[in-house]
Amino acid sequence: xxxxxxxxxxxxxxxxxxxxxxxxxxxxxxxxxxxxxxxxxxxxxxxxxxxxxxxxxxxxxxxxxxxxxxxxxxxxxxxxxxxxxxxxxxxxxxxxxxxxxxxxxxxxxxxxxxxxxxxxxxxxxxxxxxxxxxxxxxxxxxxxxxxxxxxxxxxxxxxxxxxxxxxxxxxxxxxxxxxxxxxxxxxxxxxxxxxxxxxxxxxxxxxxxxxxxxxxxxxxxxxxxxxxxxxxxxxxxxxxxxxxxxxxxxxxxxxxxxxxxxxxxxxxxxxxxxxxxxxxxxxxxxxxxxxxxxxxxxxxxxxxxxxxxxxxxxxxxxxxxxxxxxxxxxxx
Length: 332
Ligand SMILES: C[S@@+](CC[C@H](N)C(=O)[O-])C[C@H]1O[C@@H](n2cnc3c(N)ncnc32)[C@H](O)[C@@H]1O
Known about the structure:
By secondary structure, this protein is of the alpha/beta class. Helix content is 32%, strand content 13%. Helix 3 (75-90) crosses helix 4 and helix 4 packs parallel to helix 5.
């Protein structure tokens, strides 16, 4: 802009010592305010961490609003827990769980639950019962309610099963009548239903904490995942339809409607965190997910991989679909 059009306001200069005193007073006050505001926004638990996971590439859910990650999102701590988890995983009662969670998500589920310590876990999608067992191992004293229309699960003492003839869909259950307090609960969604639908339209009981297993990348998989809804940059790939319920339901959706859902999601979440894959795909050989759109892996050094993870069948690393921990500010 030409300077001739800029007329500076004429102010009498205040005395210099007044400016200095005001600045000295304001700086610490503003710093304290900023720190306490950020602390309030961070999750309850606090962990020392020497290597926080880097912000995700392409993870639009995380790109909007900081901080989105939970305080326990610390790669080094996760890495340190891997040897303990391996002993547990080797003792799993269901060795072949293809069709259900494999190594990456088994670790992610176990780790997240240990960090969050809910008193109640609702599992929607039990399959053979491996994740139910992992939930019990992570939280020995928790109340567990496991839901599945099929009746394939190996049962565990103390778990409340709503399977087979006792099945009722998550959306239709009277959770208050069951004595379930939303604040104490994490809902683990592994039922191939759209997590967006589950968390918003079907969340009558106002649950706020969710672990989402089928969190497929944009346009991938058989249901509209949270990650899918968050996508903003890959418009050119938009196909105009969304899938749900194992891909059986298809609905038209415009890009503008998609963006609206994304806005709702982004303004509703306090935390959104895609748990990292166990190890880089250069070592695991996995080809299922795209590292460009994923949280960086926990294990990146060959020596650690060779010592702890290389003995596992490579197919164990083929089940990563961005399992995430999502926490609503308040149920909407
Ligand atoms: C991928 S498997 C779950 C895997 C399991 N969590 C594990 O890895 O141990 C998906 C399960 O969802 C179940 N399912 C289908 N519709 C469902 C619904 N409406 N509510 C809950 N589960 C459902 C299927 O019967 C199937 O067992």
